[in-house]
Amino acid sequence: MSSDGRVALQPAFLLHRKPYRDTSLLIEAFSAEHGRLGLVARGARSRRGAMQALLQPFQALLLSWSGRGELATLTGAEAQGTPLAIGGDVVLSGFYLNELLMRLLPRHDPHPQLFLRYAATLQTLAARGQDEWALRLFERDLLQELGYGLLLTHEGGSGEMVAAQQRYCYLPEFGPRRMEYDAEECLSVHGATLLALERGDDADSRAQAEAKRLMRMILSRYLGPRPLASRELFRQRYGQAKRDQE
User: Fold this and answer.
1) CA 122 to CA 128: how far, in whole Å?
2) Cys staple from 156: which of 147, 166, 173, 175, with CB 3.0 to 4.6 Å?
3) Distance from C-alpha of 12 to C-alpha of 54, rounded to nearest angstrom
4) How far apart are the first and last CA of the chain?
């Protein structure tokens, strides 16, 4: 960043946008070197504004802006590469990733490795379609970046290696303990699930279901009581699809 607060051609993705005043947009972006930031795209909604069509989620961008503080002014935007083919139900997964970043990342806190993981996850979704396991691995890396990394390979307390066939009680502030440990708030998970999360291995249906419950429990501690809008969209979409099949 220059002394006058100008940043040029920074790799970034748009996380969210909404109308601002008469012809502008207020956008949230996730950049490689500056983290999450708020930008005002002045005149982007005017008839002469060509920027509105470019400022879309899941498109790799090169953004330029000026100013300091909570809101800077967008001064330029260019597409970086070919737009990803993310459509249909996969869009909901993309919105979920974006909402996690908006809710959990403080502004102006750089996370270059998380930026690369986000871009790679979008690539996976574009190539494979709906991929629940890709979401779990992103959640794992997001928690690690925020300093809330999960203990996945060793038991909490004893330090013993996690065994694939053993069932564990996962305690958020302690880690996994063998199921003979009696706790009121206990989420049961197999060691194979924990090891698959650690290694990034492919996971069977049991491991995917357990990992989803585990990540939801952990994330809820940091997201607070306000529900995620993207989860509600998931429920509405798949609840309606199930009713249509009945």
Assistant:
1) 10
2) 175
3) 12
4) 57
- The secondary element (H helix, E strand) that includes residue 112 is helix 112-128
Query: In whole angstroms, how large is the CA radius of gyration of the chain?
Result: 20
Report the alpha-carbon distance of residue 26 to residue 50 in Å, rounded: 16
pLDDT digits (tens, 9 = 90+) for 161-206: 999 999 999 998 899 999 875 556 689 999 999 999 999 988 999 9
Q: How far is CA 159 from the centre of its chain?
A: 30
Could you give the C-alpha distances from 47 to 43, 122, 159, 212, in angstroms and in order? Answer: 9, 31, 63, 44
CA–CA separation, 87 vs 107, rounded Å?
28
Q: What pTM was estimated for this model as a whole?
A: 0.90
The DSSP bridge pattern shows strands 24-31 and 187-190 to be: unpaired
At residue 192, what are phi and psi to the nearest 5 degrees?
-60, -35
Most distant CA pair in the chain, distance: 67
Q: What are residue 79's DSSP bridge partners?
A: 61
Residue 175: enclosing H or E segment and its boundaries? strand 175-178
